[in-house]
Design goal:
The chain has about 450 residues and is of the alpha/beta class. It is about 45% helix and about 15% strand. The longest helix is centred in the N-terminal third of the chain and has 19 residues. It binds one RNA strand of 75 nucleotides through helix 1, helix 5, strand 9, helix 7 and strand 12.
RNA sequence: GGCGGCAUAGCCAAGCGGUAAGGCCGAGGUCUGCAAAACCUCUAUGCGGCGGUUCAAAUCCGCCUGCCGCCUCCA
């Protein structure tokens, strides 16, 4: 295992990662609430945790990665009413959409992907434990967590309970709560027709914060090494998770808290409530999953990133350059270099320092440069295999791009035919016709390259 | 009101005490029938501003300015 340092939001400094049970490393990251198509903010978070987990594995850690799906929530219920569908169906539709997006972005499957509705009995059990030890109380059909009962409340945010109370200017606290910071563990239904689950307190549904605590307990007990999520979740979501879990288990919840920065669109934070969010599906109409990944990785994961068309084009061009250097490399027949060398050393050095992906990308470009300059074919292939290996570690899926073809035999055959025709035009010195054919192909983003000895190749440009 | 973050070339972005990585765009050149790709050359004496500490600061400290976020659903 490589020594890795990571910035821990809990302590506000970089720390050496020391899993409690090496070489295993348990990591839990907050997944989406599935009430709509996922947006590019989800893409950033997913790509962040994906490349971090990939690197942890590369560095020798046996990761067990869990990413939840929130499939019960007011927003899902509202959407269900809107569409006149059962909430569970709404959740499944958008969970499926999320998985499509993850596939398009080449985000690996987590080891576990629990859904809140699969853990209702666990949650009820969790709440009962909190009531029994005085951390929670019931008012009518609702159960609230008692924030003053947890003395460390506010540690993640970096404020005391009294300081947090002062900041409570923007919203009217629910008058029935004992303390303004108390939050719902269980929300009883308001109307007998409302959707809900049976519980000892009547029909209702779990509070959002509770599911992550419960599912972590169900899966890891008390051995969570890393908990990740967007930095907008620090307060109150993650603060509340800590309060619930540590009140319930009396043990430390997570050792390291990692948070990814937000996506901005035209300089403004993208948020569902702002209505300025771009779905992953929309973004992928204009660019490739690799380019979107490059765009994200080109900034450090903790920094905010501003999504612009210009930035996406720059990312696409950058990916194209790397991809170009891998042309003719075949990952199934060429050896993949996994021995250490100057490039992997630099790559590991950058990534081990709080997952510095922008520096890691610079290593890929250094390889790209050297591949393009290298005359010795044997060394060239060796360098390509290193580049390919590192690109995979960052989660790029370049192989479909550098191996020419459309995946559609008929279309490929037509393209080949046009190119042969162009070649004949060129032999007859009919350059006008030949160029016309090239222009036609270019209009479809098909790029032709003339190689020595009458050979040619083509590929699709994104 | 409380708390936090960020300001580096035309754009994006590393660096976090030792004299400015990388990418994109742009200019010129090589190659080519012309292209494309690639290669070569060029593109911040300076890192928001003003002070301070130091042999040395983009990097540390102080003040100021500007932008963003969290405290409400959010990745």
């Amino acid at each position: 295992m490589r020594q890795i340092t990571a910035y821990n939001s809990l302590t506000r400094k970089k720390e050496i990662l020391e899993p409690s049970n090496p070489p295993y490393l348990n990591i839990y990251t907050c997944g989406p609430t599935v009430y709509d198509h996922s947006h590019i903010g989800h893409a950033r978070a997913s790509i962040t945790w994906d490349f971090i987990v990939r690197f942890l594995r590369y560095a020798g850690y046996q990761t067990v990665w869990t990413r939840n799906i929130t499939d019960i929530d007011d927003k899902i219920i509202n959407k269900a009413r809107e569409l006149n569908l059962h909430p569970d169906k709404v959740a499944r539709i958008y969970a499926h959409s999320f998985h499509e997006d993850m596939h398009a972005l080449n985000v690996d499957w987590p080891d576990f992907e629990p859904a809140a509705t699969q853990h209702i009995p666990d949650m009820i059990n969790f709440i009962q434990g909190l009531i029994q030890n005085g951390s929670a109380y019931q008012i009518k059909n609702d159960i609230y967590f008692s924030v003053p009962s947890f003395k460390n409340y506010g540690r993640l945010k970096g404020q005391s309970i009294s300081e947090l109370e002062k900041g409570f200017g923007r919203i009217e606290p629910n008058p029935q709560k004992k303390h303004s910071l108390d939050f719902a563990l269980w929300k009883g239904i308001k109307d007998s027709n409302d959707y809900g689950f049976e519980s000892p307190w009547g029909k209702g549904r779990p509070g959002w914060h509770l599911e992550c605590s419960t599912m972590n307990y169900a899966l890891y007990r008390t051995n969570l090494d890393i908990h990740g999520g967007g930095d907008d979740l620090i307060f109150p979501h993650h603060e509340n998770e800590i309060a619930q879990s540590e009140s319930f288990t009396k043990l430390k919840f997570a050792k390291y808290w990692l948070h990814n920065g937000m996506i901005m669109v035209n300089g403004k934070k993208m948020a569902k409530s702002e209505g300025n969010f771009i779905t992953i599906k929309d973004a992928l109409k204009n660019t490739s999953g690799n380019a979107l990944r490059f765009f994200m990785l080109n900034s450090h994961y903790r920094m905010p990133v501003n999504y612009t068309d210009e930035g996406i084009i720059a990312a696409q061009n950058g990916v194209n350059r790397i991809t170009e250097a891998l042309s003719d490399f075949n990952s199934s027949t060429n050896d993949i270099a996994d021995t250490e060398n100057e490039y992997t050393g630099e790559f590991i050095g950058s990534m081990s320092d709080d997952f510095n992906s922008p520096q890691a990308l610079a290593v890929l470009f250094k390889l790209t440069d050297n591949i393009n300059k290298e005359a010795n074919q044997k060394i060239k292939i060796k360098l390509k295999s290193i580049l390919y290996n590192l690109s995979c570690t960052l989660g790029f899926n370049l192989s479909s791009s550098f191996q020419a073809g459309t995946g559609d035999k008929l279309i490929s055959k037509i393209i080949d035919g046009l190119i042969i025709w162009r070649k004949e035009c060129k032999l007859k010195k009919d350059f006008a016709s030949g160029d016309k054919i090239r222009d036609i192909l270019n209009d479809s983003n098909i790029e032709i390259k003339d190689l020595p000895d009458d050979r040619y190749k083509w590929q699709i440009r994104y």
